[in-house]
């Protein structure tokens, strides 16, 4: 299966993507995670990406599209993938279509995670992420780890992303509305969009998504 996950920052894309990818046995490709890996390794790509990310802006398409395509070229993605955070604007969506067409393949679904905006802000402000595995996500109020600052799953250090501070979050939401939301109409025209209400327990949202993909229990 080839799936795209869209939704505002804080909709739970990363959390859902990790579960869905495991259930569907396809790799989870997150451009945000790829950028963060480059930042922590200090690569030139990471240095360039960081300035845009910390300001809440999108990293330029030229850099992002190449990075996403390189990742989709890897052997584990040959049978399918779950894209999380890519595409994020119309230029990227068109580039992805061209790439897939060139390979004679196509997307199966675009899952649109829907969450009210005030909820999004609350979720992000308290979000704490494990340094060792970004799928291990906690919240300072709603999903506290047993020991403050320590990941329950693997013992990694929990931290707040630089772009999760309030001003940056507002900017990211603005960018989401102006640049990312238009891709939902683009994919609606291709009849690929399934809207998933993303409030409620993580497992419930995953079940909704799996049913939408025809893989429900
Ligand atoms: P979230 O969905 O919570 O905003 P991500 O981890 O997906 O978090 O993305 C974090 C940041 O990485 C974005 O705000 C943006 O700066 C950059 N980024 C991620 N994916 C893309 C993309 N496809 N195009 C441009 N920038 C991106």
TrEMBL record:
<feature type="binding site">
    <location>
        <position position="161"/>
    </location>
    <ligand>
        <name>AMP</name>
    </ligand>
</feature>
<keyword id="KW-0067">ATP-binding</keyword>
<feature type="binding site">
    <location>
        <begin position="57"/>
        <end position="59"/>
    </location>
    <ligand>
        <name>AMP</name>
    </ligand>
</feature>
<dbReference type="InterPro" id="IPR000850">
    <property type="entry name" value="Adenylat/UMP-CMP_kin"/>
</dbReference>
<keyword id="KW-0963">Cytoplasm</keyword>
<feature type="binding site">
    <location>
        <position position="200"/>
    </location>
    <ligand>
        <name>ATP</name>
    </ligand>
</feature>
<feature type="binding site">
    <location>
        <position position="92"/>
    </location>
    <ligand>
        <name>AMP</name>
    </ligand>
</feature>
<dbReference type="InterPro" id="IPR027417">
    <property type="entry name" value="P-loop_NTPase"/>
</dbReference>
<feature type="binding site">
    <location>
        <position position="127"/>
    </location>
    <ligand>
        <name>ATP</name>
    </ligand>
</feature>
<keyword id="KW-0545">Nucleotide biosynthesis</keyword>
<feature type="binding site">
    <location>
        <begin position="137"/>
        <end position="138"/>
    </location>
    <ligand>
        <name>ATP</name>
    </ligand>
</feature>
<dbReference type="GO" id="GO:0004017">
    <property type="term" value="F:AMP kinase activity"/>
</dbReference>
<comment type="subunit">
    <text>Monomer.</text>
</comment>
<keyword id="KW-0547">Nucleotide-binding</keyword>
<dbReference type="InterPro" id="IPR036193">
    <property type="entry name" value="ADK_active_lid_dom_sf"/>
</dbReference>
<comment type="similarity">
    <text>Belongs to the adenylate kinase family.</text>
</comment>
<keyword id="KW-0808">Transferase</keyword>
<feature type="binding site">
    <location>
        <begin position="85"/>
        <end position="88"/>
    </location>
    <ligand>
        <name>AMP</name>
    </ligand>
</feature>
<dbReference type="Pfam" id="PF05191">
    <property type="entry name" value="ADK_lid"/>
</dbReference>
<dbReference type="Pfam" id="PF00406">
    <property type="entry name" value="ADK"/>
</dbReference>
<comment type="function">
    <text>Catalyzes the reversible transfer of the terminal phosphate group between ATP and AMP. Plays an important role in cellular energy homeostasis and in adenine nucleotide metabolism.</text>
</comment>
<keyword id="KW-0418">Kinase</keyword>
<feature type="binding site">
    <location>
        <position position="31"/>
    </location>
    <ligand>
        <name>AMP</name>
    </ligand>
</feature>
<feature type="binding site">
    <location>
        <position position="36"/>
    </location>
    <ligand>
        <name>AMP</name>
    </ligand>
</feature>
<feature type="domain" description="Adenylate kinase active site lid">
    <location>
        <begin position="127"/>
        <end position="163"/>
    </location>
</feature>
<protein>
    <recommendedName>
        <fullName>Adenylate kinase</fullName>
        <ecNumber>2.7.4.3</ecNumber>
    </recommendedName>
</protein>
<feature type="binding site">
    <location>
        <begin position="10"/>
        <end position="15"/>
    </location>
    <ligand>
        <name>ATP</name>
    </ligand>
</feature>
<comment type="pathway">
    <text>Purine metabolism; AMP biosynthesis via salvage pathway; AMP from ADP: step 1/1.</text>
</comment>
<dbReference type="InterPro" id="IPR033690">
    <property type="entry name" value="Adenylat_kinase_CS"/>
</dbReference>
<feature type="binding site">
    <location>
        <position position="172"/>
    </location>
    <ligand>
        <name>AMP</name>
    </ligand>
</feature>
<feature type="region of interest" description="NMP">
    <location>
        <begin position="30"/>
        <end position="59"/>
    </location>
</feature>
<dbReference type="InterPro" id="IPR006259">
    <property type="entry name" value="Adenyl_kin_sub"/>
</dbReference>
<dbReference type="InterPro" id="IPR007862">
    <property type="entry name" value="Adenylate_kinase_lid-dom"/>
</dbReference>
């Amino acid at each position: 299966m080839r799936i795209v996950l869209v939704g505002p920052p804080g909709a739970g894309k990363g959390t859902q993507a990790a579960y869905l990818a495991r259930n569907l046995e396809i790799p989870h490709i997150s451009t945000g995670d790829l950028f963060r890996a480059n930042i922590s390794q200090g690569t030139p790509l990471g240095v360039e990406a960081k300035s845009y990310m910390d300001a809440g802006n999108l990293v330029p398409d030229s850099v992002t599209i190449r990075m996403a395509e390189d990742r989709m070229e890897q052997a584990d993605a040959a049978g399918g993938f779950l894209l999380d955070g890519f595409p994020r604007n119309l230029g990227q969506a068109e580039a992805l279509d061209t790439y897939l067409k060139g390979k004679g393949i196509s997307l199966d679904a675009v899952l649109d995670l829907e969450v009210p905006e005030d909820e999004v802000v609350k979720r992000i402000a308290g979000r704490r992420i494990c340094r060792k595995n970004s799928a291990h996500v906690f919240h300072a109020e709603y999903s506290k780890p047993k020991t403050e600052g320590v990941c329950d799953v693997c013992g990694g250090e929990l931290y707040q992303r630089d772009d999760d501070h309030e001003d940056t979050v507002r900017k990211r939401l603005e960018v989401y509305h102006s640049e990312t939301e238009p891709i939902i109409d683009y994919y609606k025209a291709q009849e690929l969009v399934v809207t998933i209400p993303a409030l409620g327990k993580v497992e419930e949202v995953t079940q909704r998504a799996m049913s939408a993909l025809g893989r429900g229990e």
